[in-house]
Structures are given as C-alpha cells and as structure tokens.
C-alpha cells in the first residue's frame, strides 16, 4: 500500500493594502514566510499570477489585485534508520515512555536537509519500540529540542502515551525547565517575556518576535551572575521553535555562543563555547498511564560546565 500523495498548496487572494507598491518577490516573502530567492523561483516557474496574467519578480503589486500562488509540496523527510548515536543516554524507560538525555549536534527526528544523527536513530538502534502515531519520520515524538540544545526529552512508546503526552504539551501542563547562560545581566533579574514569535521576515531560517505571531511566554530567573554573563533558570509556558533563544535575544541578552541570534563570538571563544549555552535541565509531567507525577533531571554537559568554571575564576 502506498502512502498519501503530497500535493501543492494553491492560494488565491486579493493583494492586501499593506504590500501595495512592493515588488512581488518581496511581498511574497513577507506574506508566505519564504526567502526572496524562493519567491523569485516560484515566479520564474510560472507558479504565480496577478489578475490571471503571468507575473515577473520586479512587478509592483496593487492593492485589490487578484494574486494566485501555487506552492509545490515540500520534499519528503527521510525515514528514520537505526544507527547508534554516541552520547545519547536513556534516563528512564518503561512500557509507555522513554526519557533521554540528548547530546549536542543531534536532532529529534529526520528532517529535510539534515544529515547528522537523530534521537530516533539512536533509540531504534538500541531496540526501543516507539509509538507509530503521527508522521512516520516522527514516531513517538511529542516535543523537540534544537540540534545544539542538550538535555531531557520524553518520547512515547505506546499509542496511549503518545495521545496523553501530546495533549499535555498542548495544554501546557508539562514543566519544562532550562538553564541558559546569557550575555550581560537582565534587568529585572527575574521576569517574564510575553511576545509573539514567527518566522523572521528575512526568510533565512531564524525566528523572531513578530506582531501577529504565535503567542509565546517565557519566565526567567537569575541563578548566578558573573562579570560578563548570567546563568538563568527558564520555564516555558509555550514551546515555539527557538523560543528561549529568540526571547533572550529580544531582551538584548542572547545565549552565549548563539551566533545566529547575535551573541558575541569573542566571549564564546574565550569560554570555549561552540554552540548556544542552553540545557534542558528538568522535565516533569504526569505519567500518561500510571497517573502520578514524574520528574527527571540532567546534569550540565562537560562543555557547558567548563564555561561556568572559567567565569567563576574571573
């Protein structure tokens, strides 16, 4: 039996007032979260019309004109394959869940363009059977960590656990606690960032605080202050892509080593940090079948601990 066929996404709408007078490639980038290069490719391939006529990327849009865009289907993500992942450790396993401590340079599941190791690869290689609900390449995945964010992840082994955990994350009843080393000293030392997040208008893979984005709430508290940086404990209400990194950058206190979001490379070099200093240190939730609260903790990886030791010696 073959799987479902992926079809393109056809969109038709009047040109909004907010992009009147803009070049069509620039306007499409803003409207659909594309890069200008990708928008220009769609136009060149004949996938864009204005008032029924073929468009050129340099055309200027008029409000009220009828814009039609066909977005080709995204490429299929690669299937997960069993392959040992060095550094991936199992913190807890029972019939319904498995909790892992994820190392750096590992993503949760296979994605288009990623050729490195994944959590799923490592678990499959160790013989762990995961729930099959959802997309095949994301079996058992109920939440994710960025590739270079280390720490705790829970995955579902049973279908019942998958359903319960997905709902728990959606309803924000999971305690997700991170430690982050950020540049400078946040003022106030304890606070909440409530700012919507969406794709960065540049279309370059970053996310940003954007009006009209998805609601995103981050609570932080200073644990330890150093001369050039602060160690924060961070609790998430929501779980947006890059949420902590985006919110800390918006406060002008990016995670040390997070060059994508404006961190100082000189400080990272001095501390020997080659990725964002961000670690999922605690994870707590109601066990999906046992009905009792469980909580797990993860120590700092050696590279993050070494950076703190250097700061304490200053």
From TrEMBL:
Reactions accelerated catalytically: a uridine in RNA = a pseudouridine in RNA
Role according to the record: Responsible for synthesis of pseudouridine from uracil.
Pfam families xref list: PseudoU_synth_2, S4
Keyword list, A-Z: Isomerase, RNA-binding
EC main group: isomerase
Record-given protein name: Pseudouridine synthase
Presence of the UniProt keyword Iron in the record: no
Family the UniProt entry places it in: Belongs to the pseudouridine synthase RluA family.
EC annotation from Swiss-Prot or TrEMBL: 5.4.99.-
Keyword Protease set for record: no
Organism annotation: Streptomonospora halophila
PROSITE patterns named in the record: PSI_RLU, S4
Superkingdom classification of source: Bacteria
CDD domains xref list: PseudoU_synth_RluA_like, S4
RNA-binding S4 domain location: 22-78
